[in-house]
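Consortium newsletter contribution from the modelling node. Members have asked for a concrete example of what our holo predictions look like. Here is one, prepared for the iron/sulfur cluster complex that several groups have been discussing at recent meetings.
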Amino acid sequence: MNFNIITLGCKVNQYESQAMSELLKQNGFSQSEDKNIADITIINTCTVTAVSDAKNRKIIHKARRNNPHAIIILTGCMPQAFPDRTEDFEGCDIVLGNKHRNALIPAINEFLLTHRQVISIEAHDNRDAEYESLSVHSFDGHTRAFVKIEDGCNRFCSYCIIPYSRGRVRSKPVEQLKAEVKALADNGYKEIVLVGINLSAYGQGEDFDLADAVDAVCETEGVERVRLGSFEPEMMYDTLIKRFSKQEKFCPQFHLSLQSGCDETLKRMRRQYDTDEYMRIVEDLRANFDNPSITTDVLVGFAGETDDEFEQSLNFVRKVGFSKTHVFPYSRRRGTLADKMENHVSPKVKDERSKIMIDACEKIRAEFLDSQLGRVEPVLFERLRGDFCEGYTKNYTPVKIYTDIDLSGQIIDVKLVSREGEYCVGESV
Ligand code: SF4
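And here is the predicted structure:
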């Protein structure tokens, strides 16, 4: 039997899809050559916004239409966060949560035996302690490998559904990480991106921390770069910063989720820092790393956000000077604290604020890219696109060089000489 996995959402979901793909191959299933047709289609869902849920449903219906007699498997954060919303399971033969990805093969075998719908969604609870052992040996279609090391979140920011879909914090032991990264390096992966649901909570309640994970990956032969996924700002302790800065292979790109540049809004979001503390951390990073980039996420139109609060947020984003900002209109999620708040902002106002924030952030982005010109930087090339090859510097600046040679997987020193839209144009030195 062959299979397709359709993945939505974050790098953790992408990692888990890769792990499920390897599990299936180890059990005699093969990857379908047709991305729309297979004996088994797995939809690995995200539920971070209402829009994501609508997208999940659309993909389920399309998969069923394309594969009327095949096995359709729904898994991931949507069924895990909303196990009672059984109308979502229509057209699915198997429904699994995200707590036990290793439950996939037994569920398929059960369905092949009974041909009755299999639903297995084990609830997360506060006793969630054990980290589910999953590992990958490659990252199909990618030059860099994402490695999940942390699951769950104990924060419960007022707008966020993730703690309900991912459970409590649990961490991959460093020894497991070492073995997994060695396998990836042996398979030619030069850059490892460490990811988690709340990566900054890695090692919470354990005798190891994120700097131990970074050190372990840096010590792995064949690995030339280590990058971190999204990070909670206030957990970027000075001790961690110092230890990261000692690692030559560490990539100085920090995705520090801001969400709002207004202290009153941050309080309603139940974020655990204010703008002064955020600015102090940014300055600390800029003082300890050569040419770091700070990227972020910002929500606009959060419950109760006034014109003045939005203005404060916009001005703070300008003050920090992010190299890239992802702007999201706030999306109400049933079951979160914020959903019950008053004074929700109209879609029209959210739209207007998104446009203003995006415009401002694009200008700052262009200034950042221009500030990289003249530098010579090592670039890990990822793919050939027609007459140029594209890749990223250590601080995640996108670079293109004009060539018809596929340099994918190679790290080459490049002088950044000009800018074309989103890319810095380079010449190899
Ligand atoms: S830290 Fe907050 S926003 Fe991030 S996953 Fe946890 S609850 Fe959600």
